[in-house]
Amino acid sequence: MSLSQSVEDYLKAIYLLETEGDGATTTNIAEELNVSSASVTNMLKKLGGMKLLVHESYKGAKLTDAGKKIALEIIRHHRLLELYLKEIMGYSWDQVHDEAEKLEHHISEMFEDRIAELLNHPTHDPHGDPIPTKDGVMPRMATLPLTDAEEDKDYLIGRVKDQDPELLRYLEEVGVLPGVKVRVIQKDPFNGPVKVLLEEKEEVLGNGIARNVYLVD
């Protein structure tokens, strides 16, 4: 099935909102893709007609098995490309997302396979997000927000959800990176900042930042 880039973008966004967000409602999809609610409504009708999703008013969209398969393929392309750009091309982790967005719709299956082989069949991208396997299985994802971690307990940073380049540069500077050992020293009440020990260095992270850092328990 030959699909437009717009269709693939919708399927990817809906999958991520279903599995990692607050649900694939019309409003959430519109915000994710920066389009109008009317455009989302029209596309959901189109995708429903193609049997790629089921949409119920006030409940949001839910991908069918066929829709999930396509979404996972695009996500695999994107995350493999991010890792390829960083590890092989020398991009920094704050640069790879936008480049991968441009390329993910245009690589062949042969190119995808070659990248995967070159990178020794990786399971996670530079931000710690899991890379779906060739047959559509999603590896385990870090799901514990730093804000919910127990104090004085060691964890590993699993992934950083935010893609804002300026924030990613800041997090790299202070050492908030996937694979780094972290311990929460203090959590201030009422959504206050979080003081952490990163390896052997203390840092204070704002609550909004800490909510988007996920740990491996």
What is the CATH class of the largest domain?
Mainly Beta
Task: Please tally the helical runs, counting DSSP H or I stretches of 4 or more residues.
Answer: 8
Q: What is the number of strand segments?
A: 8
CATH architecture designation of the largest domain: Roll
Low-confidence stretches: none
Structural class: alpha+beta
Describe this structure in words.
With 217 residues, the chain is α+β, with helices and mostly antiparallel strands. It folds into 3 domains: 59 residues, Arc Repressor Mutant, subunit A, CATH 1.10.10; 68 residues, Arc Repressor Mutant, subunit A (Orthogonal Bundle), CATH 1.10.10.10; 73 residues, Roll (SH3 type barrels). The chain contains 8 helices and 8 strands. α1 crosses α2, α2 crosses α3 and α4 packs across α5. The longest helix has 23 residues. 33% of the residues are buried.
Give a quick set of tags describing it.
SH3 type barrels, Arc Repressor Mutant, subunit A, 3 domains, alpha+beta, 8 helices, 217 residues, 6-stranded antiparallel sheet
